[in-house]
Amino acid sequence: MPVISSEAAEESREFYGLLGFEEVMNHGWIVTMASPSTPAAQVSFMTSDKTAPVNPDMSVEVDDVDAAYAAVRDSGAEIVHPLQDEEWGVRRFFVRDPNGRVVNVLSHR
């Protein structure tokens, strides 16, 4: 799922609404919209991440975030934000991919 850094939350909500997306999450600093017919098709926009030092470029949900963290760490990839439980119900970490993009890797608890 792409994550767009944005200071235009209301405008973004309206724009993606024109494309048929509906708001499925809003924490004030991040809004996620999804297609009602294909709920896995999502886009998020955020002002700044609540607990991480940078905004991710995308999010990838995995079945086992602890196993993904171990594999990525062992590969030598740069961990940008450590593995941790977040108050909004996810366990996540950020890693930099080979293209320099920051990926939020998460599992819902």
UniProtKB/TrEMBL annotation:
InterPro entries in the record: Glyas_Bleomycin-R_OHBP_Dase (IPR029068), Glyas_Fos-R_dOase_dom (IPR004360), VOC_core (IPR037523)
Q: What is this protein called?
A: Glyoxalase/bleomycin resistance protein/dioxygenase
- The chain positions of domain VOC read 1-108
